[in-house]
Write a structure and sequence with these properties.
The chain has 406 residues and is an alpha/beta fold. The chain contains 14 helices and 15 strands.
Length: 406
Amino acid sequence: MKIYDSPGASLRDAGPTGLQPIDWADGIVVKIALVNKVMSRRGGGGERYAVDLAHHLLSFDCQVHAYGQLLEDLPQAVQRHPVTAPVRPGFRKITGFIRSVRSALGDQHYDIIYALTQFYPTDIYFMGGGMHEHWMHVRDPNPVMRQLRYLINPTHLVMRRVERRLCRAANCRVVIANSNMVKRHAMVYGGVPGERIQVVHNGVDLNTFNLGVCRQLRTSVRRELGFGEDQIVILFIAHNWRRKGLETLMRALGMILRQVPRYQLVVAGRGRIGAFAKIIQQNKLHDHVRFVGPVDAPQRYYAGADLMVLPTMYDPCAGVTLEAMACGLPVITTASNGASELINEQSGFVLENHTDATTLSHYLLYLAEDPIRTAMGQHAARVMQDHSFAKVAQRTYEIMRAMIRK
């Protein structure tokens, strides 16, 4: 097994992009171990990311092995290595998973071990979930309350310790961050030098999420939802509604309904509807909000919407933001979403503060003009042509090959 317990060479001298040129015809078969707790298309962004990456690595003639607790939707050519971990308490789930994967790896040799979750030692750590320590600062800005939360729930302490150890050069040669924001957090909280971090923004399956598909679906989806073409449909899609800023969006919408009564809000994903009953009542949104629950085919809802809003507290690089852009929707999100790095004034708006409902309401007023929304949505779709998941996988493979050649 190829586990690096001493600092590896950095990529700083490998050319202007940090990578050596790749000879795609050299015939070398790269043996890769992917590590993630869950690999499934039914899961969240990280779980689906692992499945998609496995598919693409096989297309590069890699030999792919998967280590995790739930391994499904993977190609048959991927060799599965299921592991177990305690269910409770939370901190034992983390440490137990690490021990189980180490045991399963045994003395196997891999050219690259690629961890998509908190596991070490590894060659590459994909920091797709960002830094938990930063989220704790966002969640509890008051240091006293934050420390109290650490003491009450030891899972947070264990996650911080594991993150810090994982960031050491002896335990991880290269960190792949899915945004420049996450890169900064890895440097601040993990002490990772910039030359050990490669930024690869998340990508989108452009065969599924594109303007053509959405144009075909739009009329039927809006008919199913009961919306006419004269109404303006805002899409909010998330599972943690509080963290993703649903309250801010509802307050902003309440501010402008008298001016733009055409606005309708569709809320997709899991959440406690009752927790927002008071906000809906205060802002008189009863006839302007539709809860549709978890969705298996989000492209249908992108097709039926006119814009996407995600005033998130913290998202390393929200995939729904990029999917919406690829489908031709202007997007409003926050600077705390790494995906905002791909948004400019021609494709959407970025809030500096996730609680700023007033500024959000101004953006909604601006986007009430049909020609403006159409132009911005088209620009957003053009931007995403350079951010397909195929390109993400190729970039990831290039990083792996550059590491092997060193």
